[in-house]
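Hello forum,

I keep getting stuck at the same step: I have a sequence, I want structure tokens, and every attempt I make locally crashes halfway through. Rather than fight my setup again tonight, could one of you with a working pipeline run this one for me? It's a single chain of 222 residues.
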Amino acid sequence: MNPQFWYAVCFFVLAILVILLDHFYGMLRTPNTAVNKPYSYSKVQLAWWTVIIIAAFAAILLVACDVPVFDQSTIILLGISAATTTASKVIGLSDQSNPKVNPANLNLESDNFILDILSDENGVTVHRLQALLFNFIFGIWFILKVWNNIALLPSGKLDASHIIPIMDPNNLLLIGISSGTYAAMRATENKTPSPPTTPAPSTTSTSPSATTTPTTTAPTGG
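Reply #2:
Ran it on my machine without issues. Output:
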């Protein structure tokens, strides 16, 4: 039984499941009143790492018939994504009752997947791009490490608990900072400054000046 084949099967089955759940139930979308709801970056990030980690877990379980023990870095990695999603959800709920938020910004239509997760109401933002790149790059690294490690499982060179890679604390810190920056900047999105208060134009009316009617003296009879 080729372990890499089963890893690929697990990965694509989970990825297709996520796509179907989003298609039918909007699992990765921002909840609003738009007909075509935009994708949520935080939900996509959580789904990305969930698929990557659970696919590795399921493949090891199928090939080795053993439950792998997650390293602390893997748990922290999933925790960062969960915390980012939670923070984004709380901010979104707060925005719905915030008078400074333009209601039109809360009900934007979807453009496309990439633009949705990279943009706020003003367009593409650098903090979203940074978070996306870090999570994508480290995610690909994680997949490749599992792909190479799981091939060594049948030979006994690696046991089930050493297939999933251990992420360096500095790399975890990098992902945490990028996700934290996204969450902090997310709190400033959709906010519109209150329009300046201008004094109402004066409506004082001037009363017409009184006109004096000349008095004529009747002549007196002699």
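The two ends are 145 Å apart (CA to CA). If your local run keeps crashing, start a new thread with the error log.
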